[in-house]
Specification:
single chain, 300 residues, 2 domains, 0% strand, binds protoporphyrin IX containing FE
Length: 300
């Protein structure tokens, strides 16, 4: 039997990167709130009497800065992800999922800064721009949920059903050749984690239900796999790795069943996330154009 593969270590840099981004995002949002919340909670008519009014009103040095920096973050977040996804020459710069995490980080912290820029005033065309931005951010979370069910390779590029079938066959090969599992054990393993789904009749609700069951079944599948392997007297030191491989096979089979449906939904999802981004961009150009025309150029 071969030595154990250290697969969980592979994910570590990504987890550290995500943790780092989340920490910076939270620190930024909480620090600004902690610094200014008494102003934000003040009744509107009393704000001009505050000593911090000049700096904190939307065109004041601090809040205006949040608007400019937040908007720059959103632009960078969209430009970097789009370039990585669409331009071949960016393909070697890193995994697409890291770029997506970076997109989400910048396009989440950016809008939080823009929220502080507005000082919770949402009037006029700029207010409409703010609500478009909110719709884009909210739809982003929905897209991210479905995105995780689209299978990708290590670089983060999407895989086809055939790729999944090939990977399943390769995993089976390693269970049989490396770990010498016999046919009856493989058959038992393959009976685990089967969830019925009729794609032709499936509604969005039944898809969501399927995905939830799929997520929840993971832990139970591992438990059942380990029990089977123990009954077959597989040495303890290989159980973890075999469970990981078998679990991956189960997940691939579960995903193949709903792959087309998820692709369809993801396609429709773009119809919200992208057009709202464009509307927001048009409003932003008008808003910034008017502001600059009236001499609000921040520190420039
Ligand atoms: C997505 C980006 C942005 C959004 C959604 C946004 C939204 C808003 C909102 C809702 C207000 C308050 C309107 C009110 O008083 O009811 C405001 C004010 C203001 N914003 Fe922005 N803003 C953004 C970016 C920027 C940028 C980049 C600048 C830089 C030039 C800017 C300059 C101003 C100025 C000068 C004001 C105060 C005057 C006014 O109300 O028009 N904003 N913004
Ligand atoms: C104001 C904020 C945001 C803007 C303007 C924005 C804009 C965009 C744009 C233009 C794309 C398409 C890139 C391309 O295909 O070339 C995109 C992709 C995506 N965004 Fe955002 N986004 C924002 C926030 C978010 C947030 C907060 C999330 C998640 C929580 C998110 C999740 C996604 C996902 C999952 C994709 C991938 C779509 C794909 O590759 O097919 N976005 N976003």
């Amino acid at each position: 039997m071969p030595s154990k593969a250290k697969t969980s270590i592979k994910d570590l840099p990504h987890k550290v990167f995500t943790f780092f981004l989340i920490t910076i995002g939270l620190i930024t949002a909480i620090t600004i709130w902690g610094r200014n919340y008494t102003y934000y909670l003040m009744p509107l008519q009393e704000r001009p009497t505050s000593a911090r009014y000049d700096s904190l009103r939307p065109d004041g040095i601090e809040s205006h800065g949040y608007g400019v920096i937040g908007t720059a973050m959103i632009f960078i977040g969209v430009a970097t992800y789009s370039s990585r996804k669409r331009l071949k020459r960016f393909a070697n710069l890193g995994k697409i999922r890291d770029f997506l995490d970076f997109h989400i980080f910048l396009c989440l912290v950016g809008p939080i800064l823009v929220l502080y820029h507005t000082t919770f005033l949402f009037g006029g065309i700029a207010g409409a721009g703010f609500w478009c931005m909110t719709a884009v951010v909210a739809s982003g979370f929905i897209g991210r949920y479905f995105y995780k069910f689209l299978p990708k390779n290590l670089q983060g590029d999407e895989l086809s059903s055939r790729d999944l079938e090939t990977e399943r066959a390769e995993l089976l090969g390693s269970l049989v050749s490396k770990y010498k599992l016999d046919d009856s054990t493989v058959k038992l393993i393959d009976e685990i984690g089967v969830i019925k789904f009729d794609e032709s009749k499936a509604s969005l609700i039944s898809l969501l239900w399927y995905l939830t069951k799929m997520d929840l079944s993971h832990w139970q599948n591992s438990r059942r796999l380990r029990a089977i392997l123990r009954r077959r007297s597989i040495p303890k030191k290989y159980i973890r790795e075999i469970t990981r491989i078998a679990n991956r096979r189960i997940v691939l089979r579960q995903r193949m069943l709903v792959l087309e449906k998820i692709r369809q939904i993801f396609h429709y999802w773009h119809v919200i996330h992208l057009p709202f981004s464009y509307v927001m961009l048009v409003i932003l150009i008008v808003h910034v154009g008017v502001a600059v025309a009236f001499g609000y150029t921040w520190i420039f």
